[in-house]
TrEMBL record:
GO MF: transaminase activity
Record's keyword terms, sorted: Aminotransferase, Transferase
PANTHER family, sorted: AMINO ACID AMINOTRANSFERASE, BLR3474 PROTEIN
Species assigned in the record: Roseovarius aquimarinus
Protein name: Aminotransferase class I/II-fold pyridoxal phosphate-dependent enzyme
Taxon lineage: Bacteria, Pseudomonadati, Pseudomonadota, Alphaproteobacteria, Rhodobacterales
Length: 919
């Protein structure tokens, strides 16, 4: 039995302890009255002691049933104990308790009582009423608790769309732990009798309390304000929940308080029916899916189709003699819901007025934005929409160089002057991290010194990166706004849509930071702190600004955009994405341009199934996103622990830690690893609050160079071809395992089994290898783990594409379109003619994007000077895909004549601009 320190989550602990209790109780029952059962009894007593505090937070089996188990055990009724534990575990595992009452004695058990939920058809499961639990916070005795629960039970009506069970806890601390522990909770009823402190003592539960603010946040609370304070604290960790406050205080006392997620206040009454109706209504508001519901209703309507799309209503398939297999594979509903019309209760994505508009409004609420827009052709298009809407030709945009290629192409379309920022390199693993904040501030200050700060429009960063490096979003924006108060931010959160629904992760999302920043700027405390800092910095140079944690001016504009690939990390069909907006100037300055950009890039025939999946995906995360993200993190943490503690796996593999992937100067908390075999789990809340960069725990990067296989070979020939394990990203010596909200513990177990099998086969090969074979293996490992080419920084734009030499921004658009004329270009061989060209003293300038996979971002862009470091890196690449590079011809570059002509045209343009400026 694992020790409690081995568990990252109390949910995993609970599940495993019930399984262990079933095994021990069954063994005790089979032993009968034989001697030698004392060890079993001691084990059962210990398991019950560990489960007792955890079970207080769940409605099933409930504290009453759990205490009945104890009495069975203490009375020596071992067969009854084994039977009851078996039934409880089965109901917990299958989810049967969510659908019906589970009797825990031998009487009244139907034949289908053990039916597993997984064996039901999707249609049958869709017809059952969804189940949730309501947390009631009040310090009650046993009699009062029974009375309270019976009153809730009496309120149930057959027409209710959901059913729920109450869970009663006595204190504010218990309530905080409960909402972070029990993912079934959808509503909280806060009654006036609650106390402050919990009587439970369990380290794993204290970890949950720390995420809600910990003991320090509770010390100064006014006893008369425990209820409102609880609503505010729950809003911090689970803002999607509904809270209802029952108080005996006057209206005047309550009116001015911040009530957090409180939906309604009840005064001095026990109106259970009204409370029940509000609870149902609150959950119904999140359950609502306007567009999906409209599409379902449309599919039921009889129609005559006289518009485009022969596949609409499935007519072209049902009438066919040759493609019936397609209809059989997909089923009828997907075709019944296909149409090119926007009538019949449907809506237009380009000009939404009905259910799509309402679905986007609900998504905005769920993700914490001011406006949210759906996209049906991926986040690549979302990125281009935002850039086109905000960036005008000639605007300077600061971009992290290793961002997704859609941003680079977006810069071309917008005509931006691009200023690339280099991320810190991880040469030993052939990957990049993220852009240090100090480098961003330095670039802004240089542009300010050059008199160009007014032309700087946007900062564009990837949060989180493919490899899982996450920015301190709020801090980055605060310090950048201190230098340029109207700077616009675009955060590419393609891989981070799930983060909104985990308390630890939420604080690092763009929309959460936007709301915090908006509130902070309005506070008197911030105004005073800003004025004091400005007085301190007055007359000091850039070094002081770089070394100070800057505060933004109170009148800074909060202008923040986030693009998210819903389909990558949440439930949506492929290419379903969202744009989230929190821009104080959106209505006055951006809305019309945004609409035009949206019209430019959005299809006039968007896929309705994708839109419906975005609507349903939003419903899911509002009602169970907390549970799914929690399980996702648990799965990744379990994977880390299993690999890090397995002696055979450690010979060939290494899980990269935060210490491996984030330099020490960017980890103020000092946290190096989320799991240490000697010390157990690290509570990551502290480092996620304070560090400049953190590592997304849901991504597990595994160094595989010790196997002698490079990352791409290990991915394709070993994992995928041999074992059917699919992954996305590799580097020269690593592979990335991404957990998601669909990852199960069984999937993790299978991966560990596969890795162990690979390690054993490698051991056998080494045992049977000759001396020369062993040397060959050692050379391959050394080549992958030690002899690695340094990752090249962005060199520079050629002078022909720059406005002046003092600052690094370049005109990527001119370079891109200059290459359209073949007469302006030539090809140079990497191992031949390019050396002669570089030795001549002339700059060799790339004519197009060069994008190797991996790493999957441009190492050269149009107009960039080719450096010796970039050439060395290209020669060392052993990947199968390099977009933009032709091995048969070489590297496409600009001719010297083309560069001279472009230089003259650029100089003339700059001269004309100066003349216009003077006028």
């Amino acid at each position: 039995m694992h020790s409690m320190a081995d568990y990252y989550s109390a949910v995993q602990l609970r599940a495993d302890r019930w399984s262990s209790l079933r095994e021990a109780a069954g063994e005790l029952a089979r032993a009968g009255g034989e001697r030698g059962t004392q060890k079993l009894k001691a084990q059962i007593a210990e398991l019950m002691d560990q489960l007792a505090p955890i079970e207080t937070f769940w409605a099933f089996p409930g504290t009453t049933a759990f205490e009945s188990l104890r009495r069975q055990f203490e009375a020596g009724h071992h067969e009854e104990l084994a039977f009851t534990v078996q039934r409880i575990l089965r109901a917990l595992t299958s989810g049967a308790y969510r659908r019906r009452h589970i009797p825990l004695d031998r009487e009244g058990i139907d034949n289908d009582d053990h039916e597993d939920e997984a064996m039901q058809s999707l249609e049958a499961r869709a017809l059952s009423k969804p189940y949730f639990e309501v947390l009631v916070v009040d310090n009650l005795n046993e009699h009062q608790e029974r009375w309270l629960k019976s009153n809730f039970q009496r309120m149930r009506r057959t027409e209710d769309p959901f059913h729920y069970e109450p869970v009663v806890v006595p204190s504010l601390q218990d309530a905080l732990m409960g909402v972070l522990f029990n993912h079934n909770i959808q509503a909280i009823v806060v009654r006036p009798g609650l106390t402050l402190e919990s009587k439970l003592v369990l380290p794993i539960l204290e970890r949950y309390l720390n995420r809600a603010g910990g003991a320090k946040a509770l010390e100064e609370l006014d006893p008369g304000n425990y209820g409102p304070a609880l609503c505010r604290m729950i809003a911090r960790v689970r803002p999607e929940l509904d809270a209802y406050l029952i108080t005996d205080r006057s209206v005047e006392d309550i009116a001015g308080l911040d009530l957090g997620i409180c939906r309604r206040v009840f005064y001095n009454q026990e109106d259970f029916l009204e409370l029940h109706l509000n609870i149902i209504r609150g959950v119904q508001a999140r359950f609502k899916t306007p567009f999906f519901t409209a599409l379902v209703e449309y599919s039921k309507q009889p129609t005559g189709v006289f518009h485009a799309m022969p596949i609409s209503r499935g007519k072209s398939i049902s009438r066919s003699h040759w493609i019936q297999d397609m209809g059989a594979f997909y089923g009828p509903n997907i075709f019944l819901a296909e149409t090119s019309a926007t009538s019949g209760g449907l809506d237009s994505l380009l000009e939404p007025h009905g259910p799509i508009k309402e679905a986007q409004r609900l998504a905005s609420r769920a993700f914490g934005s001011k406006q949210t827009y759906f996209a049906t052709n991926g986040t690549s298009t979302c990125n281009k929409i935002v850039v086109q809407a905000l960036v005008r030709p000639g605007d300077i945009v600061l971009v992290d160089r290793d961002c997704h290629k859609s941003h680079h192409y977006g810069m071309v379309l917008a005509g931006a002057q691009v200023c690339y920022l280099d991320s810190y390199p991880l040469n030993e693993y052939s990957m990049y991290g993220a852009v240090p904040l100090k480098d961003i501030k330095k670039q802004l200050l240089e542009l300010k010194a050059a008199g160009k700060l007014d032309r700087v429009r946007m900062l564009l960063l990837t949060n989180c990166t493919f490899d899982g490096i996450v920015y301190n979003v709020e801090r980055v924006m605060e310090e950048c706004l201190a230098i340029k108060p109207d700077l616009v931010f675009l955060w590419d959160e393609a891989w981070f849509a799930f983060a909104r629904f985990g308390p630890t992760y939420r604080q690092r999302t763009a929309m959460n930071a936007a709301n915090n920043l908006r509130e902070k700027l309005r506070s008197e405390a911030h105004v005073k702190a800003y004025e004091a800092q400005q007085a301190e910095l007055k007359g000091k140079g850039d070094e002081a600004w770089l070394s100070t944690r800057l505060l933004p001016p109170p009148d800074a504009r909060v202008r923040i955009y986030a693009t998210q690939s819903t389909h990558k990390t949440l439930t949506s069909l492929r290419q379903g994405s969202m744009i989230h907006v929190h821009d104080q100037d959106f209505k006055g300055e951006v809305e019309a341009a945004f609409h035009e950009a949206y019209m430019t890039h959005t299809s006039t025939s968007p896929n309705y199934q994708i839109i419906a999946s975005l609507d349903v995906g939003r419903r899911q995360v509002e009602l169970e996103g907390f549970e799914f993200v929690q399980r996702q993190v648990e799965a990744a943490m379990s994977m880390r622990r299993a690999i890090s503690t397995h002696p055979l796996l450690q010979k060939y593999f290494k899980v990269l830690t935060a210490g491996d992937m984030i330099p020490e100067e960017h980890r103020e908390s000092g946290v190096t690893s989320y799991y240490d075999p000697q010390q157990g789990w690290t509570d990551i809340w502290d480092c996620w609050e304070s560090d400049e960069f953190v590592l997304d725990a849901t991504r597990v990067t595994l160094a595989v160079g010790g196997t002698g296989w490079d990352g791409d070979t290990f991915k394709t020939q070993i994992l995928m071809d041999k074992y059917g394990i699919q992954i996305n990203k590799t580097s020269r010596n690593t592979v990335l395992f991404m957990t998601n909200i669909g990852t199960t513990r069984s999937s993790v177990a299978y991966l560990i089994e596969v890795l162990v099998e690979i390690a054993r086969e490698l051991d056998e090969l080494q045992d049977d290898a000759s001396m020369m074979e062993r040397r060959g293996f050692e050379r391959r490992v050394a080549n992958l783990m030690d002899d690695l080419p340094p990752l090249p920084d962005f060199s520079r734009f050629h002078d022909s594409f720059r406005s002046e030499a003092e600052t690094p921004e370049g005109d990527i658009r001119s370079a891109f379109f200059l290459s359209y004329d073949d007469r302006n270009c030539d090809y140079l061989e990497l191992d031949g003619s390019i050396h002669e060209a570089m030795r001549s003293g002339d700059d060799v300038v790339s004519a197009q994007f060069i994008i190797p996979y991996p790493p999957g971002f441009p190492i050269l862009v149009p107009g960039q000077v080719v450096s010796a470091e970039i050439l060395d890196f290209m020669r060392a690449l052993d990947v199968s895909e390099i977009h933009g590079y032709r091995a048969d011809l070489g590297l496409r570059v600009f001719t010297q004549d083309a560069l001279k002509k472009q230089g003259k045209a650029n100089a003339a343009r700059l001269k004309l601009n100066d003349a216009r400026a003077k006028l």
